[in-house]
Hints:
- Helices cover 73% and strands 1% of the residues.
- It is mainly alpha-helical.
- Helix 17 crosses helix 19.
- The longest helix is centred in the last third of the chain and has 46 residues.
- The N terminus is likely disordered.
Amino acid sequence: MSESHDNQSYAEALDSVPSDPETVCSPGLSDNSPWNEKDGDPDVVSWDGPNDPANPRNWPRRKKIGNIVMVSLMVFVVPLASSMFAPGIDQVMLEFHSDDQLIAAFVVSVFVLGFAFGPIMLAPLSEVYGRLKLYWICDLLFFAFSIACAKAQTMGQLIAFRFLCGFFGGLPLACGGGTITDVMDQEERGFAMAIFGAGPMMGPVAGPIIGGFLSQAKGWRWVFWLLAILSGVCAIATFVLMSETYAPVILQKKVDRLKKETGNQNLHSALDSGMTPSVAIKHSLLRPLKLLMFSPAVLGLALFQAFYFGCLYLIFTTFTMVYDEVYHWSPGLQGLSFIPMGLGSVIGTIIFGVASDRILKWKASQNGGVMKPEYRLYLLMPTAFGIPIGLFWYGWAAEEHTHWVVPILGTAFIGVGFFFSMVTIISYVMDAYTEYSASAVASVAVLRSLFGGILPLAGRQMYVTMGYGWGSSLLGFISVALLPVPFVFYYYGERLRTRYPVKLR
Length: 505
């Protein structure tokens, strides 16, 4: 079978993912959908031709970018909350009369555990009810539970509300990939992913900088009041400025309108799955788990990204140790140690935004115009080396008590490496499973968030036992062992998708 562009015919779209015909394709999102030519059935409602302005793929570029920017704003604010609270944790432990360091780490990382369970349950529902309703609901709930965190009176309440913030706040991290595939053609998604991917990296970096000074000046509760204000602004902006982008939901609204206008109750959408709502929900909730269980490519890349994500958050938890115990910085200054990692992410954003789509087209030109999802992994192969380089650099610089700028520079390599591990793998699953991209991204997010929530719990004890040098080296050696992973899936990913198809319909 051959790969194809999203906008080709249905037969070609089925071939675009070399697997069982029931696996995953993108006909429902194609500009040139087959249902425009559905045997002349007068009861089938589809797009009004390939240039129908109601089709999100045909929207003006300004409207497309506007929706992507709104999602990117959400995925900045939510990860901001994951680390913004960290500098004030000593104040929390003092107020709630606890000196348990495991609890101190858990009250920070439990937010990321919410990312693991929320998106895998909520993002697939966007393939039943649409993206916009889910964004509205989860924005409002994130706002509400941020206020609850600010008002928490016990450690148990704070942990529970932090988890719920992550549970509902994590939706845009998974569903945002679906929004991008809804509105952008395959050869344009790299640019969109660069915009989208900056948020999950810049949020955790900016969080400690803001949180360090804010908790020092106003106390830890004001961190959550600020998050509530920011999430409230996002919720209002989402309600006012965003549009529904999921094609089946848009067409179903058209069907409902035409039924009222014509009285013909036999009308149905060309993208109607034919399932009852309960069956559709069941199928949608199972899709991420099916991909993790039965797709070696998704599972392998998800584990690769998950370990790097866990390392990232583990390193985050050690910054306060290193810059307090070794360099004796104040909480406000400790937050500034995250800046080079953010600069690494900015560099990654620029490179990916400029190069990703160009590489896709270049590789496709060498392959008869066929765009393979594996081409998205091209940039990951060299940039993955940034993680082990950064880990060894950071750990031994801190161990030897070098000038404070030396370990900080090492974290810039970690920032570059993690950024590319995130955006390239998400882009890969979006291109490979376009119609169900939200489910595909959620399947990757669940492992990533589990590692991000659990690994930091071992960070303090690991560094106390092994020291900064050997503790970071342990992570670095594991990272070196994982370096072949992107090469394996770049060269053999298509073969694995063909051999192990996943039925998602």
